[in-house]
Task: structure prediction
Amino acid sequence: FDRLAAEDRRGCYGRAAAWFADHGQYQEAARHALAAGDESLAVAHVSQCLLDIAREGRLADAHEWIKRLPASAMARDVRVQIAEAWITALGEDAANVPRLIEQIERHPQFNADSRFDVALITAAAAVFRDKPGDVAEALRDWDSAPPGATPLNVVSLANSYAVLALQREENEQVRRRLLTSVSSARRETGMRLPLAFADLLVGLSHLMDGNAGQAVSVLQGRLEVAERETGRRSSPAAMLAGALAAPRMVRGEPEQALAALVDRTDEIARIDLPDPTMLAYRTLAAIAMRRGEETRALEILSALYQFGVTRDLPRVLLVSLTEQVRLHSVQGRAETAFELLAQVDALRTVFDTPAYQPFDWLYRRTRSVAAGYACLARSDLEGAELALRTAVDVPIHARRAPMVLVARALLALVIHERQRPEAREMLAEVLSLADLGGIRS
Result:
């Protein structure tokens, strides 16, 4: 074939491109069209398949196509630009989305449908950048999907609103919104990634409710489906596995938690979704501590911190620092714990900004629990009680959340140490609630 004349080779590639296009295999058609030197035809085929590739969870393949297409080709079709913006929003390059949106809005083919796409893309990028305030701003004009919206866009809108509900601890609202929109979506190839994300949110909502058993039930079943359909290291499988490890761990099932993470921790981090990454790293650190590998646990938490620095994710920094405070406090290193707590305090102003303000409750609660641990390491029972009472001062619907149960258990310990009679009853209630949710660890 290589010895054929260039014109003959181009003819072969052109015929192959036509055959693949006739059979609906647009990615192969685009590849052969490029080889034939027909840039415009390649763009036409890519516009039909690029977003589908991403929606299947094959983000690496989608990014590779973006690199292969010349800039002139990308500029020719607004659909390709929208697909590029979508793919860029779903990962570590999400900060580049505003620049891509500006290009899309200047394109002569930009229309009303494109405007809805732009809102969803902007919201998705804000989800990956962990900026809930920006998610809400992006969706300000879109309470519901417009008539004729694609199933992808309907599910994407529901996912974005579910993220906002999850970050407000409105966990029942998460499930209600997703049940309404996702249950009617067909679980076809091109919907794998958005539906996996919806499954992730449902699982997290159960975990935040303190119902670890239900979280495992949802996430384990969906993970098995994702592994069959897209492989163990695919994006859908990785995000679900990262989340599954956490309820497995709190149920006292470290081996099952580790099994969910083995041979794909790198892929979980590469997806760049904050929650699966944080949950995976925290689980690995907890497993290391169970095995007496304290140095390894600190290395894992430091790696999580560096992930947060590299991606500019303050919530990740908060989780890493407070987990380190807890670890050092348990080991009696009070001075180190308070040094780390000072770094947590330095994050305070970040969570006052509009982009991160919805996380303010999380910052205050997480910081209070960490302060409780640090005060206990210093045998400051009064300071520990003050911090922990702040941590357990939560709405009724949040009283069974794992973090709150930990704070309530610690508070019962402090009350016991201060020789007050209500300690036993407080601890009994915490243990009963934990048992009700299947929490063993």
In short: DSSP finds 24 helices and no strands in the chain. The two ends are 63 Å apart (CA to CA). Residues 231 and 237 are 7 Å apart (CA to CA).
